[in-house]
Amino acid sequence: MLKYLVRLLQTHLIYFLIYTNDEGIYTMKKIVIGVLASAVFWLASPAMAVPIVSGQTNVQVTAPLADLGITPALLGGDLVSADPLTLGFGVTGGDLDFTTLAGTIEHVGASISLTGDLGTVDTSDDVTVILSDFLINTTTAILSADVNGGGMVDIFSLDFTGLDAAAITDLANPQISLTFLDAASALLESTFQLATGTLTGAQFGLAATAPVPAVVSEPTIFSLLAAGMLGLVLYRSRSRT
User: Fold this and answer.
1) 150-209, pLDDT tens digit by residue?
2) pTM score, two decimals?
3) How far apart are CA 119 and CA 125, in angstroms?
């Protein structure tokens, strides 16, 4: 149906551009051509960012955190599996082009804590880092998070190599590799008193994300088309007189 409307609009647009030269209707011509062109290119374009309204992102933790004296805890999210440890976070917003998979995926309220045991028997000197409000940027392939309420920091790089949309959204089988970025590695190594380079380039886990887009409003589409058609009717009625 939409393909037919696009072809119809393209035909009328070409007619307007070639066969109308009356200076008296110049203003009307510009208005109608603008409306038609907007409708044609909006509908015909294969790439369009769509608002995200919900969804789920799962992260399977693969890093040997226990060997590093780090204990993860889920603060805002769901425990999908204890073995292997898989955490689930609700998608709360963002915008995504579902053709190119370029955009952002928000997880406001999602959070985990990482607590480091600095060597004493008790917990008096344990240090905790809280990562929250995860933001996936599929264009830059980076996952950012708020660190201890102090602002967003780029934490992981995302590796989509060899993955199609089906693999990326397969929540039961996370395949997107999450690797510590240099700045985040340095921050956590300093916080948890780890040797320099311990986390640099290391894999934290594997992820899958399945965002749900908002429904595109058909009334909005057809109101634009109707405006273009109305302009054509007015033009033709005027040209006959």
Assistant:
1) 999 999 999 999 999 999 999 999 999 999 999 999 999 999 999 999 999 999 999 999
2) 0.71
3) 8
Are the CB atoms for 110 and 136 separated by under 8 Å? no
User: CA separation (Å) from 102 to 39, 108, 139, 140, 215?
Assistant: 23, 19, 5, 9, 18
Same domain, 201 and 166: yes
Half-sphere exposure of 106 (CA within 13 A, CB side): 11
Token pair, residue 191, equals 């916080």
Residues 34 and 143 in one domain: no
How many degrees, rounded to 5, is the angle at CA 162 between CA 57 and CA 86? 25
Q: Are residues 108 and 220 in the same domain?
A: no
- Nearest of 56, 92, 55, 95 to residue 216 by alpha carbon: 95
**Domain match, 196 and 223 both:** no
CA distance 41 to 85: 46
- Domains held by the chain: number: 2
Q: Do residue 98 and residue 123 come from a single domain?
A: yes
Residues 66 and 128 in one domain: yes
Residues spanned by the domain of 11: 2-46+216-240
DSSP sequence for 23-34: GGGHHHHHHHHH
**Rg of the chain (C-alpha set):** 26
The predicted-structure confidence for 51-81, as pLDDT tens digits, reads as follows: 999 999 999 999 999 999 999 999 999 999 9
